[in-house]
């Protein structure tokens, strides 16, 4: 049984964005205007008519060109852990989408998720790397480097279209939607025309639509309780309690499908809007459900539903992706050492 809390218009648009339907074609002239605006904006930054700010350490930008979640946050966490394993000290900067604050602030382990955003909170929790959020990425970068001067590389979460911050490496992630119908908003799901120059393309799904590096993703075999304890997922299928899965992500069905692929008999699934704070979500009381959710959602659900079980996502890009990243980063470091200005990508 499935429950839907996503707006109907959103579901309709997402369906049309995957094909060149009559609605998509009718909106196509507006997409041409949007594409022209994107190209003009890139031109203004490239020619220096709009100012770009450069951080004193290399900047790796992780983003996507398709709306909604495509796997940026798992990629950022995988990058941070990889760099830490290389002996580096990465920091993460983000806008903090969905937060109720607008200032520049550090994301601490005890920071209220509503004040920092759910994805920055998850990155801080999973990696231990310093994380700062600000409306302008350069403000977050400067604050982070002041507080943690040992930081030698910055990862900008969801910053592909934030051209005001100069970058050394651009990573574009795609899920199984690929580029959808290939149209830019509002006729399609693209934030900007594709293809566009990037340094690395990473596919986070199981069916890459075009060339790029691949990755492996699967749910962990143990869920995490609010007290950090662990519960074997296999035991949940046998304890007699019906299972309720809720997800406030861009693609909630993907989470539900992964749970069911592990043999978990979900009695009820509820899809909520992406980044939902669950403040108005009412837990069904018709049965004694065991509540399953994503790690990101658990950070918000645990305040009201401390018995919720978070099922972590295990995500790993292929080794060749990291080999190429290491070479690009070494080249960026060398360029900075040989020139005080360097040559960030456009």
Give an account of the 3D structure.
With 346 residues, this protein is α/β, with parallel strands linked by helices. The protein has helices at residues 8-17, 22-46, 72-85, 113-116, 118-127, 137-147, 233-236, 252-261, 295-301, 319-338; strands spanning 2-4, 59-63, 90-94, 105-106, 131-133, 153-157, 169-174, 200-203, 215-219, 222-224, 230-232, 243-247, 266-271, 290-294, 309-311, 313-317. The strands form 4 sheets. Strands 4-5-3-6-2-7-8 form a 7-stranded mixed sheet, sandwiched between helices. It has a 5-stranded parallel sheet with strand order 1-13-12-14-15. α3 (72-85) packs parallel to α5 (118-127) and α5 packs across α9. The longest helix is centred in the N-terminal third of the chain and has 25 residues, at 22-46. It starts with a strand and ends in an 8-residue tail after the last helix. Residues 342-346 have low confidence and may be disordered.
